[in-house]
Amino acid sequence: MSETAIAIAVPEADPLVDLLRREHTRDGGEGMPAHITLLYPFTDTLVARRLGRVREVLAAFAACEIEFAETRRFALEPEAVLWLAPSPSERLVAMIDALATEFPEHPPFGGRFDSIVPHLTVAVSADSGVR
Question: pTM, whole model, 2 decimals?
């Protein structure tokens, strides 16, 4: 079964994070560029039929500039996630909420977390020295 996600590519971040992502993330190791995930897991069937609905939901959001000026960590035992914090993040949260409302059968991150924090993952590692 294949996995899909709805994500915003952030190619401007690749020169800064690509090597860490390739070494310390599964998707980076598979060639996925720097990105902010909006909805994962999405769907493994009928993707083409759902793309129109995705476009409609996201068309309500105007383009905006996002800055990444701060690194943070999520503690997910036994590993931690090093990530870049997007600012402002409110529009990203609204996009995630809109997609989750449109596709309730696909809650963000499978419903694993109480709240969703938009982020750009740099590394996932049990080594706290990964920076």
Answer: 0.91
